[in-house]
Amino acid sequence: MLLKELLQTAGKYEIYGSDEIEINGIEIDSRKIKDGNAFIAIKGTQTDGHDYISKAIELGAKAIVCEKLPESIAEGVSYAIFNDTEDAVGKIATTFYGNPTEKLDLVGVTGTNGKTTIATLLYNMFRAFGYKVGLISTVCNYIDGEAIPTEHTTPDPITLNQLLGRMADEGCKYAFMEVSSHSVAQKRIGGLKFAGGIFTNLTRDHLDYHKTVENYLKAKKAFFDGLPKTAFALTNADDKNGMVMVQNTKAKVATYSLRTMADFKGKVLEDGFEGMLLDINNTEVNVQFIGRFNAYNLLAVYGAANLIGKKPEDILLQLSTLKPVSGRFDSLRSPEGYTAIVDYAHTPDALTNVLDAIHDVLKGKGKVITVVGAGGNRDKGKRPIMAKESVRQSDKVIITSDNPRFEEPQDIINDMLAGLNKDEMKKVVAITDRKEAIRTACMMASQGDVILIAGKGHENYQDIKGVKYHFDDKEIVREIFAN
Questions:
Q1: 72, 98, 310, 407: which is deepest, by most CB within 10 A?
Q2: From CA 443, how far away is CA 429, in angstroms rounded?
Q3: pLDDT tens digits, residue range 389-414?
Q4: Strand 14-16 relative to strand 330-333: parallel, antiparallel, unpaired?
């Protein structure tokens, strides 16, 4: 592709050198540059791509997209100067990969909790309907049946468009995608055309990045503000920010709810550790999911499938066959008759939802033992809140290590314990070793009790000092049960 063709939709720029040169690839990571590529220099939160321009040229970059001209100009290299390369990169990427979202219907899911479940269930449902479908999620990306490992909830714009381009080339009709607040704030979804957007809920998360809940809300809302007239915007009417999200959208607004009038109205009729009986728009359906939070997730899936154009009776039939997503309320039954639940809950609200669901099923007939930690180098303010919420809803709490990253595990535990008073501390044990914490919880449990192991869910590693060590909560539980 010629450089001028590559840049045609990216906004105003100045060119130094020729824009008639052929470009055979684009990169934002200078280490990946190959001969004939364009390097896009972005000012990131950790590093500034402008510092790596000479490295990119050394490796064969023929064009540099940047915000300021370097002091030394390399011969035979073209420089395109933009005001904001972070804004331009998504548009450049979508042009290079052939505007994939013009060829398939892309639906984005955003909110604090439920994104992975909703996006994955829609992917599974539409594959069951017989379509080729793509999925971009926290757990794994898929191009129809092919798994592509993932590192971020929403990949960088080049990886994202490359994935979507492959989906379009391989005949995918739909793609479902988790849209993180980071990806909106960092314009990773720039240039993409969405056929629909779904809002789940908004509670405290990622304040290490956004600094305030208001900034976090604005990032989520910007996604809906950017939806085209042809798209749908499906929002949770029971969340206090549900209608705020869609107040300025051009998309067609629809609502879902368990508590109020809505386009897609649900009610939990019965629940147990095997599943729930739901009423959705006056039709009953048995599902293999537990908890009110999952009732919301399933309503969002039902609503989105309706808005995409599927028949209600066909959607309900598929809902009854869908299975929970890995690491989301994964229930394991011990030989001694107690239940261990592994869940990704890593925010105060997610913890509340999972514990509420456990109590709804137990109805006071068993103890709840919670194993919980908090991630290192992330929002410290939620740590004491998570400890307090765990104590409020549990008979016993074991505070342990999660992904400490570059912090000391004991420091994170101390931050959590700081939120508890003397009486609350009587319910708490602190065990830094996560495997030992899970083993201790199992030793405390009797028949009919429930252990919640929160925070890591689908993750099969612990992130310690920059190294990911293999660690899988479910594997540990199964090993303890077997012994």
A1: 407
A2: 13
A3: 999 999 999 999 999 999 999 999 99
A4: unpaired
